[in-house]
Amino acid sequence: MLKNSNWYLQGYCTTRNDFRIFSISNMSSLETQNETFIPREFDYESMDFYFRTDRKKITLKLRIDESLRELMTEFCGEDKIEDLGDNKYIAYFPFVEDDYMYKMILQFGEKCECLEPENIRSEIVRRIRNMLNVYINPH
């Protein structure tokens, strides 16, 4: 899974006898084994560890360029992407209102437009204006 711009592997740890999340960037010497395993039941909702919070999770409606489609599919899931034609898509993006998530949306630049909700769109506009002001009126 892709979370916070990093890839992770959800797997069962035989040492701890429990499911764990492993950072792929920390893996170095993987080997294929001939051992087999019995699949265990798993609650897939538990993989969404960024959103395990008391803060309210909302869904943004984003209009995105085709160049962001694959990345947005990783964040949102294939079922949350709609084709608009003309190389544009609608993505229903999970969002917790914090500085990290605003920065994530802003990094997509002109390839992504927040359509809804209006309060999030307004905050993105405010942040863009503040950033532009730094360059227009340098101190």
Topology:
Layout: E1 2-3, E2 6-13, E3 18-23, E4 57-65, H1 69-76, E5 81-85, E6 88-96, H2 99-106, E7 112-116, H3 118-136
Antiparallel strand pairs: 1-2, 2-3, 4-6, 4-7, 5-6
Number of individual domains: 2
For this structure, the quaternary state is single chain
> In angstroms, what is the radius of gyration?
19 Å
CATH topology annotation of the largest domain: Alpha-Beta Plaits
Helix-strand string? EEEEHEEHEH
The strands making up the biggest β-sheet line up spatially as 5-6-4-7
In helices, the fraction of residues equals 25-40%
Broad structural category: alpha+beta
Number of continuous helical runs: 3
* Gross CATH architecture of the largest domain: 2-Layer Sandwich
Unreliable segments (pLDDT under 50, ≥5 consecutive)? Answer: none
Q: Can I get a quick summary?
A:
This protein has helices at residues 69-76, 99-106, 118-136; strands at 2-3, 6-13, 18-23, 57-65, 81-85, 88-96, 112-116.
Notes on the protein architecture:
With 139 residues, the chain is an alpha+beta fold. It is 25% helix and 32% strand. The protein is built from three helices and seven strands. The chain has a four-stranded antiparallel beta sheet. It has a three-stranded antiparallel beta sheet with strand order 1-2-3, with no helix packed on it. Strand 2 and strand 3 (18-23) form a beta hairpin. The model has no long low-confidence stretch (mean pLDDT 85).
